[in-house]
Amino acid sequence: MGEQAHNHQSLPGDNLYTDPRMARNFRRRCESLVRHLPIPAPFDERAFCAALGERRGRSIILHPWPLRHLIPGEEVVSGFVDVEHDRDVIYYERDTRRLHQQQIVAHEAAHLILGHQGDGITPATLVAELQQIAPQSTIRHVHPRAGARSREEFEAETLGRMILSRANSSSAQLALKDPDAALLLDMLEGLDGYSS
Questions:
Q1: Are 80 and 109 contacting, i.e. CB atoms less than 8 angstroms apart?
Q2: Which among 168, 153, 165, 190 is positioned nearest to 32, based on CA atoms?
Q3: What angle do CA 37, 41, 44 make, to 5 degrees?
Q4: 38, 55 Cβ separation under 8 angstroms
Q5: Which residues fall within 8 angstroms of residue 43, CB to CB, at 6 or more apart?
Q6: Does the predicted TM-score (pTM) go above 0.70?
Q7: Beta carbons of 137 and 169 less than 8 angstroms apart
């Protein structure tokens, strides 16, 4: 029994679900990241990924694909990142609402922003089927059905939602009219996050 206990290693951040302090610290980290990301208002996933790719020095290509029709089974795949030699390709579900597509793209982009390497959420059979869709690819992230319980999926979902939220925030809307006032509001929002 002692040997089994040693075989299970907790990953940093595993307690994001249960430790309020860790969750709060992660949200603060995301808030800081979001304040410095090139998020257009209103949100435009192509403009966001183009600006993010330029900032990272690696282009990000968006590729809509009928994933639900091509990948049968219980795993509902909405999107994944194909890491190529000189660029990243975000595949996302073609046959869904635009808002859902934006959520998928923001989630997959969050994996790139957070530097995720994949944490065992790509079962071999699923990857084999995805390889048929994207031959020659190095798939690192698969966005499975909602509620996936892995640290990286939780983090990407949190940051992805904050990206979309930011696009609709007061400072993002104000930036369209008065960039200086938006900068002041942005600094105040940053201070507000650290007051609790």
A1: no
A2: 190
A3: 85
A4: yes
A5: 102, 106, 163, 164, 167, 168
A6: yes
A7: no
What sign does the dihedral 173-178-179-184 (CA atoms) show? negative
Total residue count of the chain as it appears in this document: 196
Q: Hey, what are 148's tokens?
A: 């996936």
Cα(114)–Cα(29) distance, rounded to whole angstroms? Answer: 10
Q: Are 113 and 159 in contact (CB under 8 A)?
A: yes
Per-residue pLDDT of the chain (196 residues; tens, 9 = 90+): 333 333 333 444 456 667 888 888 998 999 999 988 999 988 999 999 999 999 999 999 999 988 777 766 666 678 888 888 899 999 999 999 999 999 999 999 999 999 987 754 455 656 666 667 666 666 665 655 444 567 888 899 999 999 999 888 766 666 666 666 666 666 666 554 433 3
